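Hello Y.,

Per our agreement to keep a running log of every chain we model this quarter, I'm adding this entry. I've kept the format consistent with earlier entries: sequence first, then predicted structure.
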Amino acid sequence: MTTAPLHGAGHLGKMLLTGGRGMVGRNIRAHPLAQEWHILAPTSDTLDLTDTDATAAYIAAEQPHIVVHAAGQVGGIQANMADPVGFLDRNVVIGRNVIMGAYTAGVTRLINLASTCIYPRAAPNPLTEEMILTGPLEPTNEGYALAKIMALRLCQYIRQQSPERMYKTLVPCNLYGPHDKFDPHNSHMLPAVIAKIHAAREAGTPTVDIWGDGTARREFMYAGDLAEAVLRAAADIDALPDLMNTGVGRDQSINDYYQTAADVIGWSGTFEHDLSKPVGMQRKLCDTARQTSWGWSPQTDLRAGMALTYQFFLERSSS
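Predicted structure for the entry above:
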């Protein structure tokens, strides 16, 4: 069987990282703590995670010490609304194949990455882990959310039946950072904002549009900080709660994010609000009490993280 090269010194063992070429996966692989692991990050050419038998065979053959499941079909509001079938079906299949493949192969440690979109649309903020499945989901990304809830519940059921299996889920808030997607048709909000404001600066455009009135609030964490949390959790998974929000514990308005991006990029135009466009949930802020008790918090502030992300965008655009 052909595998991706092993990465790192590996004194903690072998890690199978799904989604190793995505934003989260690349940030995990680039983090200094990754050197403590031999990381297997098979590409889709090597391993098709939608193939049940191939996924099970791969995990059984490699026998990783831990699986970190970060793979999936991801995107912003436009992408989710354009392809709800794909976002539900592909993510359900991938999540099931990876988790059950690990379970069948006897892997005792697995970290599953979910998303705050799993919380009910009308849930009060801040969002606590107990609120999952207590109300209807946000319609604009319901398919993706249902798939993530399925994977989360599957991990919980495995823990119930086999308490020695450390199958645990982190629920990150919105993410941004190097290796993000900047195409507005399939990107999340912050990379789309960076690309849009950069284009306005380059073209000398005096205005940039914002979907909605800009008062909706979001919590964004730098992807490098999530990578640190994942790798710390992998090294001591026994101490990790079975289900834990992972975020910065504070939010800002959409208008604030646009203004920060404009400041970082050096664009001094004005914003116009398009009230005909969807904005998703009005607010989505994590409760980070479990994270605080676990003893971790992200260290990259928004302006610094935005500057690093914009630097990556410029480097990729020029290459």
